[in-house]
Amino acid sequence: MPRDRVTLAAAWAWIDAQPAAPARELVPVVQAAARRLADPVASGADLPDQSRAAADGYAVCAADCDGASAYNPLPLVVQGAGPLARGAACLVGAGWPMPGGADAVLPQEAAQPAGSWLDVLAPVAPGTGVARAGAIWRAGTMLLEAGRRLRPQDVACLAALGVTAVPVLRRPLVRLVVAGPKAGSDVLTPLLEALLARDGAIADRAPDLAYAAAPDAIILAGRSGDGPDDTAAAVLQAAGGTLALHGVALRPGETTGLGAIGPVPVILLPGEPLACLAAYDMLAGRLIRRLGGAGAGLPYRTVHAALARKIVSGIGLTDIVPVRWQDGRIQPIGEAGLAAAVQADGFVMVAEGSEGYPAGATVPVHLYEAADP
Amino acid sequence: MPRDRVTLAAAWAWIDAQPAAPARELVPVVQAAARRLADPVASGADLPDQSRAAADGYAVCAADCDGASAYNPLPLVVQGAGPLARGAACLVGAGWPMPGGADAVLPQEAAQPAGSWLDVLAPVAPGTGVARAGAIWRAGTMLLEAGRRLRPQDVACLAALGVTAVPVLRRPLVRLVVAGPKAGSDVLTPLLEALLARDGAIADRAPDLAYAAAPDAIILAGRSGDGPDDTAAAVLQAAGGTLALHGVALRPGETTGLGAIGPVPVILLPGEPLACLAAYDMLAGRLIRRLGGAGAGLPYRTVHAALARKIVSGIGLTDIVPVRWQDGRIQPIGEAGLAAAVQADGFVMVAEGSEGYPAGATVPVHLYEAADP
Which residues are bridge partners to B311 per DSSP? Predict the structure, then answer.
């Protein structure tokens, strides 16, 4: 492995110094869920646009119902559409415009229809069952801030505003060049495509670096070490690229490299699958999440849990220790490589200044559950 | 609204009594991330298939390095491929088969090449840098259980097993029939399409119930009450369907209905967007998540937080109260409808037997963040 390893903090500093001004694109509102909004959105008009019934019932003048009860039903004339006459009531459904002169919607359970009359069985306070113009929001109200990852209700809000297409941050396009496996089948392509999709990026599988589309980042996966067949660094140089850092004090993941071809950042990831996963999460994913307008943080939920067994770690290396739940505590996983990755419910990071944790210590655990990118 | 409302528990019991045996389909491994595995997966063979180098370095017989140090370098002959001779070393890269007779990989930093010789600068323990056959997993090891939502590393595991297509649970196909809005633009279609996509379902927008494809469930959205223009129940009946329940003691969402057309469950959802969201989450989503092989639980993360202001709730109704974070506490939202939905960070459920919570009470909050369906 490269001998001049930098700290994880130095690698993060390099990543965070890369320009990250995501481009934007316009998408139909029905495809905007889970995308990040490019511009803030304010309401252009009051909602509702006019005073509307908020419930099914009878539009009335509340004063006409004063004193009504089951023992003292008050009669009102049932009228059709148009401004409400005093002493009258008009059947309305939720969402209908309130007739002029009406100030409340009498619930159906407080009304006893009797032909062209209605017996009011309870009083109703003015404003009951009415959504006044602007009751949901007023024109000019700031509704959705730029950068927000749109939730279903946010998309509904855009639709309510009459927006049909919305500017969102473009998904980062990541060229993915995977070295052929040393043995067995290609594990890195499905691993990295799934990670990129999870982080909101579009994987652009390419046979080599000469491939033409202009990506936002490039991942060269496999052959990242300095063993006899580790060609990734040479491939990058041959394509006119440079390595800014090669070797990170991260275990697994030591052979990760960070560089560029022209303005495009390039990350070399190790070929061992667990190392590739760890290095993606800690380094490549950080770059890609930033390019997509997300924060630099891990896309995993963090909880605190007690260790069932001690973790020993070397000073000077950040260790990524896969763990699984066991009886409400977390247990470092004895298996290696992919077996550890599939058995893991999450991982513990042991910082480079730490020698590990004793059994029973409560530590932060990053859970392998998808969170919003 | 319907007057014979059932409790939320009764509505859940109806939903949970619906058959939920998701069908399966075969998908390419590269498209299997985030899908649910239909069958358990065990390894068919040892991984590695044979003893392989786990690191770059020199394959050696560890005994040949005993006593080596920088002050006492021990020379070894560098040989090419083939079984290792005693007193020899062979350059290997991580993943390469170990030469016969070698039992350790000497790290490059412990070796000083000198032409056709190598000076060993440190001893190495037998097994160092070697992944023996089956070190990751043995043939027959159970790796992935049925029903697991496949994570990136799980997909990598399938690829490592040589699987190219994997049986997963089919996404539920949900016919979505949305009544025209009473005012303004259609908010329900984008809202429900986003919710269905989040919950792993495929929305099949249809103009009416007569549409032909055979869905796993049907959502009729809007016009679910019993006001003058509330036609959903009648539309269902005209199509030969029946309502098992109409009216749920859920606020908002009281006008939700549960029924069927033939063997296909049908859910009537209210047209007011916040009510539609609440009723989808509490009822329709539960059905759909079960149809997709997920648990019946809410797809939201739950935390506990202190209330900044009291919540008052009526006995006999389950209240869904949108809340937002404010100074580390949660604040019930004063706004109504969509404005509350977009401002909400989550919601508090107040059970039907509760009159609410005082200010300062610590309550469970369901956060509007996507979690794994």
Answer: B357
Give contacts of B372 with chain A, Cβ < 8 Å. 369-370
Which of A52, A156, A190 minimises the CB distance to B273? A156
pLDDT at B26 over 50: yes
Extract long-range pairs of B17-24: CB within 8 Å, 24+ residues apart.
B18/B265, B18/B287, B18/B290, B19/B263, B20/B290, B20/B291, B20/B293, B22/B169, B22/B170, B22/B172, B22/B291, B22/B292, B22/B293, B23/B169, B23/B170, B24/B167, B24/B168, B24/B169, B24/B170
Whether residues A156 and B187 touch (CB distance < 8 A) is answered with yes
What is d(CA B115, CA B113) in angstroms, rounded to the nearest whole number? 6
List the beta bridge partners of residue B283: none
Q: How far is CA A154 from each of CA A133, B179, B339, rounded to the nearest angstrom? A: 21, 20, 10
Q: Are A241 and A261 in contact (CB under 8 A)?
A: yes
Q: Cβ atoms within 10 A of the Cβ of B250, count?
A: 26
Task: Answer yes or no: are the C-beta atoms of A270 and A232 closer than 8 Å.
Answer: no
As given in the structure block, the two tokens for residue B32 are 């299997």
User: Most A CBs within 10 Å: which of B178, B191, B230, B276, as the mutation test of the A interface?
Assistant: B191
Instruction: State pLDDT tens for residues A239-268.
Output: 999 999 999 999 999 999 999 999 999 999
Closest CB from B56, B229, B370 relative to A230: B56
Closest CB to B338: pick one of A34, A57, A160.
A160
* Lowest-pLDDT choice from A164-173, A179-188, B118-127, B339-348: A179-188
What digits encode the pLDDT tens for the residues B142-177? 999 999 999 999 999 999 999 999 999 999 999 999
Which chain A residues contact residue B370 at CB under 8 A?
34, 151, 370-372
B3 pLDDT band, cuts 50/70/90, is low
